[in-house]
Amino acid sequence: MRAVTMQAHGTFDRLSWGEVPDPIPGPGEVRLRLLASALNHLDLFVLEGLPGLKLAFPHIGGADGVGVVDALGPGVAGWSPGQNVVFDPGLSCGKCPFCLQGEQSLCASFGILGEHRSGTFAEFVCVPAVNLAPAPEHLNDEEAAAFPLTWLTAFRMLFTRGRLAPGESVLIHGIGSGVSLAALQMAKAAGAVIYVTSSSDGKLERAKALGADAGINYTRDRVEKSVQGLTGGAGVDLVVDSVGAATWMASLKCAKKGGRIVTCGATSGPNPAEEIRLVFWKQLSILGSTMGSRADFARMLAFASARKLRPVVDAVVPLPEARRAYERLAGGEQFGKIVLRHEGL
């Protein structure tokens, strides 16, 4: 098969397009012929190299995708060649106490497709059969490829960890990323009041068109002062923070007394300034969240399908031109997901 591979950690010149061996599905696995895949910030981090991550090169990135069942590994039942499917990109052992409790993203050996094993930037990929789900009928291939990782992450942040209730207020930092847009769309569908931040007035206007109640340009206005004004001095019930160092102090200041802050990432850095007195004085709940469980994935699919929610696709790029997609993501100008088209190769 043909694939986009990285030959070593480094910059975009480490990416190449060419032939690699076809993957063979192992016990409990299904091989998919991919129709489309999508980038996440994770793909930039894997290319650059993450502490402790040891890869066998050449490595194929990509966590997200939509495909057609092509071949079944030993012991697989319930799936047939030709079925259109999406999949949970999380990889877990299925045997540890957390997996047995249904908390796969807490598994001691938890991994992510495209990070800990070769992923979706290829014509074929093998995934565990237990991770599969029928592709949502209301989505086209590009939309279906765009949503699994970020929508699963946002769903767990909002509902499983954040316990968002109708009528509550939510602050979402850095609107335009896959997670932030998924959080906006799902929180709006759940009846929340939503405030978003960005350095781009254009992104703020597009977010309002998707349902944001107000936007804050953090290059002009202090986020915490704006939130206090919007909430009558109270602050918000829930802060969704996937940015990290650049937004953490604002998150602490924007959460109301007894409020919650849920974090899933640190794209701007992992070691923010902290003010612990705000945490105990305001009695804040600081919640970590990573990806989601299989139950979260099933609930997210049902939630999005029932409300006909569609992920925002920023751009569609042919798979052989993946370097261009990496560069666009790294530039930070995207609004939504950057998708790679596999059909017609």
* Oligomeric state as shown: single chain
**Text of the CATH class of the largest domain:** Alpha Beta
How many structurally independent domains?
A: 2
State the end-to-end distance. Answer: 11 Å
Helical stretch count? 11
Principal-axis shape equals: globular
- Pick out the low-confidence regions: none
Specify the biggest β-sheet: 7 strands, mixed
Cα-based radius of gyration, to the nearest Å = 20 Å
Q: Beta fraction of the residues? A: 25-35%
Q: Could you tell me the CATH topology label of the largest domain.
A: Quinone Oxidoreductase, Chain A, domain 1
Task: Describe the 3D structure.
With 345 residues, the chain is of the alpha/beta class. The protein has 2 domains: 2-147 and 311-341, Alpha-Beta Complex (Quinone Oxidoreductase, Chain A, domain 1); 151-288, Rossmann fold (3-Layer(aba) Sandwich), CATH 3.40.50.720. The chain contains 11 helices and 17 strands. It has helices spanning 41-48, 97-100, 141-146, 148-161, 178-189, 201-209, 223-230, 248-254, 276-281, 294-306, 322-331; strands spanning 2-6, 15-19, 29-38, 64-72, 84-87, 90-91, 111-112, 124-128, 132-134, 169-172, 193-198, 214-217, 236-241, 255-263, 285-288, 313-318, 337-341. Strands 3, 4, 5, 8, 9, 16 and 17 form a 7-stranded mixed sheet that branches. The chain has a 6-stranded parallel sheet with strand order 12-11-10-13-14-15, sandwiched between helices. It is globular, with a radius of gyration of 20 Å. The mean pLDDT is 96.
Descriptors for this entry?
single chain, 345 residues, alpha/beta, Quinone Oxidoreductase, Chain A, domain 1, Rossmann fold, 2 domains, seven-stranded mixed beta sheet, six-stranded parallel beta sheet, 17 strands, 28% helix
